[in-house]
Amino acid sequence: MSNHYDALGVSRDATPEEIKKAYRKLARKLHPDVNDAADAQDRFKAVTHAYEVLSDPQKRRVYDTTGNENGNDNGAGASNFGGDGFAFQDIFETFFGGGGGGGGGGGRGPASRTRRGQDALITVRVELREAVFGVNKKLEIDTAITCPTCDGSCCRPGTHPTTCDVCHGSGQIQRPMRSILGNVMTLATCNSCQGFGTMIIDPCNECMGEGRIRHRRTLTIKVPAGVSTGTRIQLSGQGEAGPAGGPSGDLYVEMKVNNDPAFLREGDDLHATLSVPMTAAALGTELTFETFDGEQPVSIKPGTQAGEVINLRGLGVTHLRGFGRGDMKVHIHVETPTKPDAAQEELLKQLAALRGETFSEGKLVSSGGMFAKLRDKLGNF
To answer: 143 and 252 in contact (C-beta within 8 Å)?
Structure first.
């Protein structure tokens, strides 16, 4: 009497997965179509019979208890691999790399009409001021929502899906397929019900059996302070509703920050230009400067030069992650009189004489200074 465990090369406490793995390995090796050894066919039949017994929990229990070679249901052996009890699914998987895709070695169940909805992406424009402090935005979006008439059932109210009379609710039908082992039965999706196992005989008139409709809805989102162009906000469950009452996907809101006529953003810092009369730059003065936080005092020290930067701490963009804000960097532009009248011209000449300056003298300054580089990077101030 042959020992089924020895035939498969496994121990008596082997798991079902270990038994299946051992059988597949031996079946590939011993099948007569790939092994022309004289005893290949007999050995193939032996491991097939052993697998049939040990892969069935009830047959294995009887075999382990009695040790009977015919220790399976009704005492009938299965020494030929064409018997009724042979696991066609397993041999199909052995030679064709997997069967019906249902997992767990069994057939797949009927497919579900209910599926998760798609994610959606929209772009929202905000002003720079809104990006600095944050804002609530009211949006109107076209999306899919669960059908209010059938509540996602896909059926006309008062009706229900009916069981498919072709596959009898399994969503699958058996089809014969020729292989190296002869004809084997395989599972295929039922064409009548498309694998759902049920059919919508009387679909909802509003959603046409989809379980969802297109609808424009209003949504208010909170844009956090500190967003920049490209920042995305994820709103879970605010995307499109799924078919047949399925859960909604997510909505992604991508920010686009508009350019501001007065301020230029670099990271979380803001840059602006303040024009100062030549006399004020020379003598010094106190000016007011309009920011997103209102008017701010700016102290112009005597002898201030064009291109100098005055830093107003904490008046920039709010940090998106963390605390605090960036700075406001005020670039000074010194205004030189372009068309002085006779009196102004005379005063300027007197000033030049007092300073010992002549119109034929000049001083060459490198154009690659720090402000020039910053100006090229940020724009003209």
So the answer is: no
